[in-house]
C-alpha cells in the first residue's frame, strides 16, 4: 500500500491521437454536447492527467492505452473549467477487471463489529488512489447496458474533489464568490428530501445510493449532473444551480442527442450494479 502514496516523477504530456480520442469518447452521451474548443481542451487535460497518474491493473488485467484514455476523458469532464491542479496530491489509478469485494470491519449502532465483503464498483482514498471496476466503467458507455445517471468514473473523481479539504462530506472547496450558506442549504434540503422519498419506497430518478451519506449525495448528483442534467435541474433546481456554479458548466443547456433524455430511464436499478466506494480515509 505504501507505494500508492509514494510521489512519482511527472512525465511530459503526449498528445492523444485523434482516432484514439474518438474511440474513447464517442460512446459517452455527455461528450457529444461539447463544442469543438471544449472537446479539444478536454483532450489536452486528459493528456496531462495521463502524464501525472500511474495506471495499475489487478488480477492480470492489462490496462490498455484506450482504457486509460476512456478513464481520463471522463475524469477530466469534471475539471474542464477548473484546471488540472484539482487532481494534484495523489498519483495512482487502480483498475480491477470487474467489481471487487474488500474485507472490512464495520461497527453497527450497537457497537458490534462485523466483517463485510460488499461488492464495489469503485473507491476513492483520501491522499491515495482511485480504484475502479472496468466492467462498470465500460457499462456506462454501452448503449445496451447503460443505466441513466450511472458513471463510476465521475462518481469517484467527484469524491477526489470533495477530499481536497478533508474527508468526503459533500462540501468541496468552493470557487471564489460562491456562498457556503447557499451550497449548504441547497444540498441539505435536497439530501433530506431524497432520504425521505427513498425511505417511503418511492422510485427516484436520482440513485438511492445518494442517501448513504452527504458525501455520497454529492458524488451521485455529480454523476447525474453530467449524465442526466435535465433530471437534476427539474428535481433539485437549487442543487443544479450550485453544481453549475461549482463546475462552471451548464450541461442541461447543451445541444444533446435525443437518447440523452431517454436512454436507460427504464433500465435496471443502479443499486443492482454494486456499491460505489465511499471516500475512504488515508491509510
Offer a quick outline of the entry.
With 283 residues, the chain is of the alpha/beta class. Helix content is 40%, strand content 12%.
Task: Please give a structural write-up.
With 283 residues, this protein is of the alpha/beta class. The protein has a domain at 2-104 and 113-143: Orthogonal Bundle (Cyclin A, domain 1), CATH 1.10.472. It contains ten helices and seven strands. It has helices at 18-25, 36-52, 65-77, 134-139, 152-162, 180-199, 214-227, 229-235, 237-247, 258-262; strands at 54-57, 92-96, 104-107, 113-116, 120-125, 130-133, 275-280. Strands 1-2-6-5-7 form a five-stranded mixed β-sheet. Strand 1 (54-57), helix 3 and strand 2 (92-96) form a beta-alpha-beta unit. Helix 2 packs across helix 3 (65-77), helix 5 (152-162) packs across helix 7 and helix 7 (214-227) crosses helix 8. The protein is globular and about 55 Å long. The N and C termini lie close together (8 Å).
Chain-wise SSE layout:
Layout: H1 18-25, H2 36-52, E1 54-57, H3 65-77, E2 92-96, E3 104-107, E4 113-116, E5 120-125, E6 130-133, H4 134-139, H5 152-162, H6 180-199, H7 214-227, H8 229-235, H9 237-247, H10 258-262, E7 275-280
Parallel strand pairs: 1-2, 2-6, 5-7
Antiparallel strand pairs: 3-4, 5-6
Helix pairs in contact: 1-3, 2-3, 5-7, 7-8, 8-9
